[in-house]
Amino acid sequence: MTPHRISARDGLILHAEDWRPPAGAAHRSPVLCLPGVCRTGADFRRLAERQSRTRRVVTLDYAGRGASDRAADPARYRPDIAIRDVLDVMAALQIDRPVVVGTSFGGLIAMAIGVIRPTALGGVVLNDIGPEIGAIGHAFVLDFLRRDPNAESLEACEALLRAALPPQPELDAAGWREFADLTFAKGEDGRFHPRWDTRLIDEAVGAGAGPRPDLWGFFGALAHVPLMLVWGEVSEILLPATVARMRKQRPDMSVVALPGTGHAPTLTEAAAIAGIDAFIAAIP
């Protein structure tokens, strides 16, 4: 794996990780992993380890998340700027027609790319996101992600996540500990804080993000590419009625439904791994 530090148009530094297949491997479409609104590319490391045996995989930390720079002005976290950053990273790293695996916010970015640059995509995996977003789930995201627990230990962070997050039935004790470590980091004060700038939430998905466009039109822009959906069946972000309409509009869409799982699947679930690996394998 090779880390990259990429300068955005305004000089903010974006962190990406570039996983390359062994020398001599056949050239196949790369995979670009786009995390949820407050998550990081590290969520996809297991997927990257698997897929990089045969093809290139790039994971990205958006501005204000993970190892990417924080912005002085939170307006920098608007969705339109995040989309521009992703397109610029694709150009800088020469990522041509990737299969995009997008969790939640990352899936929305994939849809937006389908509108802005229709020929830039080789395929899309939407992880628990669609053209309509459940109001209860949206409100939870806004409330939870603007908070800094200022926790004294990783164990305390784990307990907080277990109590607050939607169901993740496939996470065992080790899985919850890993998830806590991917979510919080020890600061200079010795306490644990989010791996995202808590100011970003209102700008990225709240009132500062502006009026929501017709996301069904965005979904329709993916009509020309292979499409897969991973759905947590008890998700309060992606509701059954939305999934039913997506299936009607795209009957060829591959769907992996995870019973008892909320928003968002970690993509470490056995069914998700099998489904994603088969989907990507079918794309040259």
Automatic annotation (TrEMBL):
Pfam family membership, one: Abhydrolase_6
* Recorded coiled-coil stretches: none
AB hydrolase-1 domain: which residues? 31-274
Q: Does the keyword Hydrolase apply?
A: yes
Transmembrane region(s): none
Question: What is this protein's name?
Answer: Alpha/beta hydrolase
Which is one GO molecular function term here?
hydrolase activity
Which of UniProt's keywords are assigned here? Hydrolase
Q: Which organism is it from?
A: Plastoroseomonas arctica
Q: Gene3D superfamilies recorded for this chain?
A: alpha/beta hydrolase
